Amino acid sequence: MSSIRLGGAICLVVLMTLAGGLSIALTSHGLWDSASRPPVSTATSLRTAALGASSAESITAPSEQTSIPVGLAPYGVAYDSGKHEVFVVNSGSDNVSVLSDSTDAVVATVAVGSAPYGVAYDSGKHEEFVANRGSANVSVISDTTDKVVATVAVGSEPFEAAYDSGKHEVFVTNDGSNSVSVISDVTDKVVATVAVGSEPNGVGYDAQKHEVFVANEQSANVSVISDETDKVAATVKVGYYPVGMAYDAGKHEVFIANEGSANMSVISDATNKVVATVGVGSYPVGVAYDSGKHNVFVANDYSSNLSVISDSTDKVVAAVAAGSYPAWVAYDPAKHTVFVTNDASGDVTVISDATPALVATTAAGTYPGAVAYDSRMHELFVTNSGSSNVSVISDLTDKVVATVPVGGNPVGVAYDPGKHEVFVANDYSGNVSVISDVTDRVVASIVVGPYPWGVACDPGKHEVFVTSTRSSSVILISDVTDKIVASVGVGTLPYGVAYDSGKDEVFVPNWDSANVSVISDVTDKVVATIGVGSGPDEVVYDSGKHELFVTNDESDNVSVISDVTDKVVATVAVGSAPNGLAYDPGKSEVFIANLVSGSVSVISDDTDQVFATVSVGLDPGWMAYDQGRHAMFVPSNGPGDNVYVISDMTPV
User: Fold this and answer.
1) Is the pTM of this model over 0.90?
2) pLDDT above 90 for 480
3) All domains in the chain, ordered by first residue
């Protein structure tokens, strides 16, 4: 075994020496002449070209995942929905590893035929069909006993298998005889043999059309077989060396991995025509459809990663690191995870499809700080303290659609859903600018006194709460008259402010006092004061748990306050100098911007623990959640003055 260091990562290549001194590499297709694998520089350039010219950070997800050791040279993988188990075919050790998806551990090992490759789960019989390439047969495993209950002879070099739930049949591609064997799961006998293209590999069943799609590697096409007639009904030209495939039931499309052209062909099953071509990593092989997120996962053998494709845009939305030479992929809908076999490293990578990751970066003004989401217009309003204006970003295009001049050093911002207006606190000019979201223009300017900072809207009272750091107070503005209606004294140096719709109260962190003032919007008086960490800065309301999350800038943690008891119920360690934060109601998660760490911590409100950290630019400040996009928008004062878009649905 030898090691090649590539860009800081170590890629393991399994080498064998045959008689005569010829070195060959064990790859996803078994034993290949080492000369047939492109040099490292070629593989790297193929990956770079496939991923496009956009910055790597816009598509690269964090590497939080599990790795499970299995047999030698694992290849095929299938999810058993009846047992909640994953069956992994080990082509080098002639057996199948059975993994529990609850423990991510091997619970059984089943001996099968010679050089097994593909596997398919038969949900009707609760059996696994394993294609044994070396012994030209198929092993049938009962998932009740984890034992082989039948062996079915098929064509030469069987490669992959797919279960046809409509006919209760299993379709097996025979790479060496250019055919597909059709096995009845009632009799475990071959009931038909269908001639297809040259070197058929991947196979998938389309339940809507009752058709089977077969990728013919050497013919560079896909044969479409009707399961009514067991005859080829169409042939579709695709990219070079098509191998794996997956059927997307949501879009009624078939995704084909073209190993030689480093891309995916997307076929509509209505027209049997290619409707899109998507560039991915180097030598894509296995493919799986994630029905929960409507994403397609593609294993890139030479890139040692997975490309994640959104089926709504047919674009790569993330690249996820895997093991050495990832081969085949299976989706587990019960756990919302993806299982990836790694051919060279002899393990299986388990990837969650639900962890947040950075998906886009948008340039804003100078020193972008706070951000508010306008749900009616699907726009984000970003305050730029250095350029004294507000950038308006469309969440459809991630582009700035308007720039609105406001007062000096704008900081806090909030959207008022009742008036369809945006309120901006201008720190240096001592006023609040009111922007109409219809015209993207300032329609009012309200003098509030020196150094206003945080802003929150109380839609029930039609009031806007603005913290005044110099006067240690909170100013109340009527959104009907755009006039000050009250002022409430709080602690020293109040910054953030949040409205609690469950209690009709307003929570204000006081930096120097190390506490939080609770104001009743009925009486406009402080009804409680709660001690928290050092340097409390910002606050957000979690409507699902009826809790308030407060960032403590100097103690690098977050205080969680129950609005029932007005007491701290948890303290969560996060990154360095936590500042802005936002609540994601769809995922019941809280996102924390860490100024010094240049990262975002993601806290589950079920456990009050950090379960993900997303790297962004320097000095990330406030943030806002876009429920229409399922994404968090994070302004950053780092180089480029960007707004980072974090999807709460992207896998890692």
Assistant:
1) no
2) yes
3) 2-49 (no CATH), 58-352 (2.130.10.10), 371-489 (2.130.10.10), 492-652 (2.130.10.10)
